[in-house]
């Protein structure tokens, strides 16, 4: 009123006139838009303006509210429940304590955490030593190599000495061979004389016997000379016996105190210990290789099975062919050829369409083909993405385009790679086992060599034998003294030369008599007598002795005939193997770690880390089992004081942060729904409130079939929604989710009942100068009420529409329209 009072009179008049003009124009427009020539329109017809608006296609999914996320709360450790802090139905927040275990269990878990920490620290140190060995370890390894080299040099030197005999040994052996040759020659001459003796030889031999007997009798007539001879012989024998006893004692004592033997024995024992350590390590390596080989083979087989199934799913996806992956050729072209499939022909552009024409249905499967015609038809007519049958594998298809051949090729290549990986896993396992077995065999050889060496060097010291040798030497010395004293009593220094001569003559006479008798006996017996046989045996023995000495001479010159050659040669081989092993150990320290060892150590370190994390998690849960998220407790299974196992469920937590609407759609609509599509959710209990959601799941298999065989098939659909923080929606509430399938904005729209003509040639009745004119149009998408016009009409054109049965003629008024689309 204050504003009008300030206007002048002529301003008020102008304002009134303007308002009148505006109202008149508005009435005229409304009249032109809604009026029709009563002579051209029937009672159920109405003129409707062509307008711009949005066309939205959506479907509704009816279902109920559910909470899919449920958490079974467990301690993960055995113990006694000390506290339960929640009740069934109680709401909890993330981090709230649900229950606790007793103090004894917590103390035990704290010890496990400490032990896991120590194990992790040890594993880290081992990993550090493997990557960068300590200087002390490297120095010890270098020293071991040097010692092994010295041992090999000593063994080679010993063997060289054996293989190169001294000049004295060669001369002595040559003399022995010459003596044996002379003995053979004499034996052969004696045998030849015995076979054909002459009379002169026989008479001469008889005379020699008589003369020798007379000469010996004359010499032995002096009793003093005979006694002296016996005493002298006793002294000589006592000296020999004493010398033998002393030498035997010295040899035995030298064998006990030999410093070289002691050093060799220490080295042999060290080699034995090293061999046993290497054997234990080799056995561990073998077990690890065997276990890892089995694990890798299982993993490779699992990967092969999964790749084969994915490959088979590709055939099911595109062709409806259900097969096992293992029965398919990894070469997709060969597999398709086996099924009689030509992708280029089957998915040709000429076969494609958009949806189903009026009255058309999806074709049934042809049992005479390997593929499913219904599946192929769905791809050809309902795919929301462009399809390319073939494409260059090096070029990516355009965005929104699927290359069918590439999907088959990629799945087949992945399957072939999985098959090859399984084969490589088997080969790697065999190689690892062979390498470990080689190390086992090498260490066993080293152990056997060291044991043989120790056995050779450690002959037990027998105190009884030592005492016997010492006693024998003492007795021999006493016998020698007695013999010398007896000889001294019989001899006078003034007659020493005469006595000595007599003794020598007696010995010579005895030998002469013996030879004469042997010679006479040989000559007086025929060649067939025992003497001839004895001489023949002597010849054979002399020949065998000569042959044996010649063999010994050859072995002496080659060095391999000595008794200690086998042991020396074996010692060289053991020393060489030991040096190789020591050098290999040093190389492993200096070079980059072996990939297998590094993988094993990495696995050990990761296992130790996992063990620590798990033990810390168990300790944390035992000290206070907490709710992982907001929600409510649907069930409590434990009581205070109750013994509980590691996997026993203490309570069940329902996560209210994730809410879903579970429903179903028919087999036609399910083809149009994609994951991630937005949806508007309304609940019967909250009619005035709408919630935003997205499609989180579309089932691949039907859940039910209504009406029996040939009825409506339904597929499960799940819509995930977010509830406001202040909203509490109990499970089971009825809800309806409106899922948007497509949306076109700012397009020309006409009512569905304004369309005339046929499906291929649609027309509308356009009002021109208040007359109805048939006008051809091009149509686009449609819902139950509105249809998009792409050609033939302009915004504001007036067309004739027929009101649906049961509706009045104002059905298509400005305010009418469907919730799913239209202006």
Proportion in β-strands? 15-25%
Distance between the termini: 39 Å
**Separate helix tally:** 17
Largest sheet: 6 strands, antiparallel, barrel
Helices and strands: which structural class?
alpha+beta
Strand order of the largest sheet: 2-13-17-15-14-18
Whole-angstrom Rg: 59 Å
Shape call? elongated
Give the mean pLDDT. Answer: 78
Give a structural overview.
- With 823 residues, the protein is α+β, with helices and mostly antiparallel strands.
- The protein has 17 helices and 25 strands.
- Among the domains are: 34 residues; 170 residues, Efflux pump adaptor protein, beta barrel domain (Elongation Factor Tu (Ef-tu), domain 3), CATH 2.40.30; 185 residues, no CATH class.
- Helix content is 55%, strand content 18%.
- The longest helix is centred in the middle third of the chain and has 61 residues.
Observed structural traits:
823 residues; 25 strands; Elongation Factor Tu (Ef-tu), domain 3; alpha+beta; 6-stranded antiparallel β-barrel
SSE map:
Blueprint: H1 2-5, H2 9-34, E1 45-49, E2 51-66, E3 70-73, E4 79-84, E5 91-92, E6 97-101, H3 103-131, H4 135-163, H5 167-195, H6 199-220, H7 223-257, H8 259-319, H9 332-339, H10 343-346, H11 373-382, E7 386-388, E8 401-403, H12 404-457, H13 463-490, H14 496-524, H15 530-558, H16 565-590, H17 595-623, E9 625-626, E10 631-636, E11 643-644, E12 651-655, E13 659-666, E14 678-683, E15 686-698, E16 704-706, E17 712-721, E18 734-751, E19 756-757, E20 762-768, E21 771-776, E22 778-782, E23 786-791, E24 798-802, E25 821-822
Parallel strand pairs: 7-8
Antiparallel strand pairs: 1-24, 2-13, 2-18, 2-25, 3-12, 4-6, 4-11, 5-10, 6-9, 10-12, 13-17, 14-15, 14-18, 15-17, 16-17, 18-23, 19-20, 20-21, 22-23
Helix pairs in contact: 3-17, 4-16, 5-15, 6-14, 7-13, 7-14, 8-12, 12-16
């Amino acid at each position: 009123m204050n504003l009008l009072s300030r206007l002048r009179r002529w301003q008020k008049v102008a304002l009134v006139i303007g308002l009148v003009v505006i109202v008149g124009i508005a009435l005229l427009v409304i009249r032109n838009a809604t009026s029709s020539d009563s002579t051209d329109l029937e009672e159920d017809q109405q003129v409707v303006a062509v307008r711009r608006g949005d066309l939205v296609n959506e479907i509704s999914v009816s279902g109920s509210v559910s909470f899919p996320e449920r958490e079974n709360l467990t301690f993960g450790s055995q113990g006694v429940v000390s506290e339960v802090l929640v009740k069934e139905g109680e709401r909890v927040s993330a981090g709230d304590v649900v229950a606790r275990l007793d103090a004894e269990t917590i103390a035990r878990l704290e010890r496990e955490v400490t032990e896991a920490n120590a194990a992790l620290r040890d594993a880290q140190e081992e990993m550090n030593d493997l990557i960068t060995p300590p200087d002390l370890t490297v120095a010890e390894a270098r020293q071991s190599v040097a010692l092994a080299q010295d041992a090999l040099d000593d063994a080679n030197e010993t063997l060289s000495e054996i293989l190169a005999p001294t000049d004295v040994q060669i001369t002595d052996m040559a003399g022995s061979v010459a003596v044996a040759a002379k003995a053979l020659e004499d034996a052969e001459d004696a045998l030849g004389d015995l076979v054909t003796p002459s009379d002169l030889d026989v008479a001469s031999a008889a005379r020699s016997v008589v003369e020798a007997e007379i000469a010996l009798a004359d010499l032995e007539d002096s009793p003093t000379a005979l006694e002296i001879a016996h005493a002298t012989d006793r002294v000589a024998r006592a000296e020999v016996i004493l010398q033998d006893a002393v030498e035997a004692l010295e040899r035995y004592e030298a064998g006990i105190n030999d410093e070289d033997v002691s050093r060799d024995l220490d080295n042999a024992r060290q080699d034995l210990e090293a061999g046993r350590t290497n054997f234990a390590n080799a056995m561990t390596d073998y077990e690890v290789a065997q276990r890892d080989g089995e694990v890798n083979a299982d993993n490779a087989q699992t990967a092969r099975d999964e790749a084969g199934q994915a490959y088979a799913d590709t055939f099911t996806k595109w062709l409806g062919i259900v097969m096992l992956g293992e029965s398919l050729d990894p070469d997709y072209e060969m597999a398709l050829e086996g099924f009689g499939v030509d992708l280029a022909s089957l998915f040709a552009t000429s076969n494609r369409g958009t949806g189903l024409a009026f009255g058309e249905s999806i074709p049934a499967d042809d049992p005479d083909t390997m593929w499913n015609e219904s599946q192929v038809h769905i791809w050809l007519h309902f795919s929301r993405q462009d399809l390319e049958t073939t494409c260059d594998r090096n070029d990516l298809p355009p965005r929104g385009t699927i290359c069918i051949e590439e999907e088959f090729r990629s799945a087949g290549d992945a399957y072939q790679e999985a098959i090859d990986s399984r084969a490589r896993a088997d080969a790697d396992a065999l190689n690892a086992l062979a390498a470990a077995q080689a190390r086992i065999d090498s260490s066993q050889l080293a152990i056997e060599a060291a044991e043989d060496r120790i056995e050779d060097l450690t002959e037990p010291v027998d105190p009884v034998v030592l005492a016997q040798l010492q006693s024998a030497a003492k007795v021999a010395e006493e016998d020698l003294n007695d013999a010398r004293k007896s000889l001294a009593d019989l001899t006078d220094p003034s007659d020493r030369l005469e006595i000595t001569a007599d003794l020598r003559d007696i010995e010579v006479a005895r030998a002469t008599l013996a030879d004469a008798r042997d010679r006479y006996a040989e000559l007086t017996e025929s060649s067939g007598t025992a003497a001839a046989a004895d001489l023949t045996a002597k010849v054979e023995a002399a020949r065998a002795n000569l042959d044996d000495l010649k063999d010994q001479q050859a072995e002496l010159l080659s060095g391999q005939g000595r008794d200690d050659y086998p042991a020396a040669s074996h010692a060289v081989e053991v020393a060489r193997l030991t040096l190789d092993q020591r050098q290999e150990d040093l190389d492993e320290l200096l070079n980059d770690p072996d990939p297998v060892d590094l993988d094993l150590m990495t696995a050990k370190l990761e296992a130790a880390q996992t063990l620590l994390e798990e033990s810390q998690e168990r300790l944390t849960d035992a000290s206070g089992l907490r709710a992982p998220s907001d929600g409510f407790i649907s069930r409590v299974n434990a009581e205070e004081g109750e013994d509980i196992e590691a996997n026993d469920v203490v309570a069940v937590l329902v996560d209210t942060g994730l809410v879903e609407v579970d429903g179903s759609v028919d087999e036609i609509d399910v083809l149009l729904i994609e994951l991630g599509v937005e949806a508007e959710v309304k609940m019967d209990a909250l009619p005035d409130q709408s919630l935003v959601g997205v499609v989180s799941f579309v089932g691949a298999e039907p859940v039910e079939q209504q009406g029996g065989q040939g009825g409506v098939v339904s597929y499960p659909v799940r819509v995930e929604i977010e509830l406001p923080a202040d909203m509490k929606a109990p499970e089971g509430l009825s809800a309806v989710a409106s899922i948007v399938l497509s949306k076109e904005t700012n397009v020309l729209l006409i009512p569905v009942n304004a369309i005339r003509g046929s499906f291929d040639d649609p027309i509308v009745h356009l009002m021109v100068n208040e007359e109805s004119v048939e006008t051809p149009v091009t149509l686009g998408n449609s819902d139950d009420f509105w249809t998009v016009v792409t050609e033939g009409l302009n915004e504001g054109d007036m067309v004739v529409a027929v009101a649906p049965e049961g509706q009045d003629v104002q059905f298509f008024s400005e305010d009418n329209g469907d919730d799913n689309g239209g202006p």
